[in-house]
Amino acid sequence: MGNVDVESLFKYAMKGQWREALEAYKENPEALLEAKITKAKDTVLHIAAYLGQTCFVTSVLDEIDKEVSMNALHMQNSKGNTPLHLAAELGNVELCRDIARRDLALVFCRNLHGESPLFLTAVHGNTDAFFCLQGYSQDDSLARKTNGDTILHSTIASEYFGLALQIIELYPNLVNSVNQDGLSPLHILAGKPNCFKSSTRMELLQIDLYSTDNQRLSGSFVDEFEEINDARYDEVETTNHCPMNYGTCTSSLSLLKSIEQEQAEKAKKARKEKKEQQIPPNWAAMIRFLTHMMKILLVICGVGASWIGKIQRRKVKHILAKHVMNELIQRTSECIYDYTNTSKGSINISNDKENGGIENIRKSTMSPILIAAKMGVTEMVEKILDTNPVAIQDVDSDNKNVVLLAIENRQPHVYSMLNKKSLVKDSAFRQVDNQGNSALHLAATYRSHRPWRVPGAAMQMQWEYKWYKLVKNSMPPNFYERYNKSGKTAKQLFIGTHERLAKEGGKWLTKTSESCSVVAALVATVAFTTSTAIPGGPDQETGYPLFQGKPAFNLFAIASLVALCSSVTALVLFLSILTSRFQEKDFAVDLPRKLLLGLTTLFTSIASVLVSFCAGHFFIVEDQLKYAVYPIYAATCLPVSFFAFVQLPLYFDLSLAMIRKVPQRSYKVQSHELHHY
């Protein structure tokens, strides 16, 4: 076939002229069906499958010779994908069914990455297409690719947890499978802290909506998800175009649903009993009413609907991820730990038969509980310890156990949970790594990234010292401070590794205090001058102010006094910061408290000066203009309001830091760390 015909086919496909393309196929089927019309070596059937042109593909296959059409369906592009691969990738159930029933061998065809069409449906979360192709073959090999990744690895990595739950029921042996990097599905899930509530950052209003939007909301999403699946599978099972072996799917889904309902009923009963004990009935109704009113207000404001929906989807994802975690841990509880080589504390999944190379990789891989501790997935660490208490003995290649990793990576939620377990505190807290570092040494060591959810070096330094003191105070009573192999104590490590951070924090505090002290001095000067001036002057006979007793005069007197006192106080506080020695312990309470009080008094002094000015100016305005100047006074206060609004995040961070003993971790820096395991 000449180049003109290939160009014509390409134009037909790009312009959507499928009738013309079909006519061209009828004229020269053998040559045209094998024509590569793109640089990626796609045929027109590839393009049609990618664009979802099911009718065109079906017409071609029905009207062309069967042998020729089968050869066309087996044509692969530069990536090794057949038209069925593309249909599976896009989730085109009708096209997947039509192609698979014509030639079952296409279901087993793999691309250059070793991916079957079934694998691609799972990778892209196409549940309908997945069960359509899964009905043609339950061969486990279709669920794997050449690098050892399975469909369970892929669905968890892509956060399709609903499909992952169904895959666990259909392919239970995939739970313990590992890829070439030695990672099991539980390893993958442990490296996704954003899928769990304990590792998700939420603001105050988000937390309120998340908590008050009770389990009934989440349960409704899960139940609706399962009911849709059940209805779809029942419908597919009675379809004449599909094989009649969907009984396994339906039974497994029914079992899954019964488990979910049983867990939901238990949780609902527990919550009901807890509420009956803690909250009076009328309070509960009032809380629900206020929650609904808050949602309505957010929707009226224009951002509430999408925002609330985002929180709901996040909660459903957390619930499904936790269900997947429970299933994975429960199914691996009897075979995941084999301490024939306890010196490395590695995991050995006994029922997964891989070659020796994979076994060596697996022995050097961190166990799921260690990854979860490092990433801050508190739910997984707690569940594994409850199911397999022996997991507390797991260590990585540096001989660090779950406690040391949680402390080193600044995971306060995991650490607090471990600190409450007596078994852990009696043994794991005394562990040292290969360098002789204890838990206190690792708490004192500062690394390059900034882990805490606060801006600025000064506040990072504050939380670093609080973290060090928290770990030190929670050590066992007979714990003694020791030297590591470098001959350093934890205190020496803290001073050495935090030296640069302390300097950066000191520079920021110095610069901030210098700027604020200048403003405070100016305000104090103005406030002193204002406080000595009397609006309208004194009475010549009595010496008392002429406007004494009037509301505006009293407001002027009080505001000018407050402005003077608060500005002088702010000046003293900022000067005390400038004269500080900036030692490590000063960043914990002393310096942040002075900064918070200094900013508060400075803001108060500026506001008081403006109030005193407006009150004094009120006496020189004519009576007919007094009501007209109110908007001008309000506009004068706008800069102060804007300044307060801008400083609110800093105020909140400083205030919460003074209240909280356990800092909050930031998880943004860890999204790329899994491949290092």
UniProtKB/TrEMBL annotation:
ANK repeats: from-to residues: 79-97
Signal peptide bounds: none
Protein's membrane topology: Peripheral membrane protein
Cellular compartment(s): Cell membrane
Keywords: ANK repeat, Membrane, Transmembrane, Transmembrane helix
Residues annotated as domain PGG: 507-619
A Pfam family per the record: Ank_2
Superkingdom in the source lineage: Eukaryota
TM stretches of this protein: 283-308, 516-535, 555-575, 595-620, 632-652
Any GO CC annotation of this UniProt entry: plasma membrane
SUPFAM superfamilies on file: Ankyrin repeat
Protein name: PGG domain-containing protein
Native species: Flemingia macrophylla
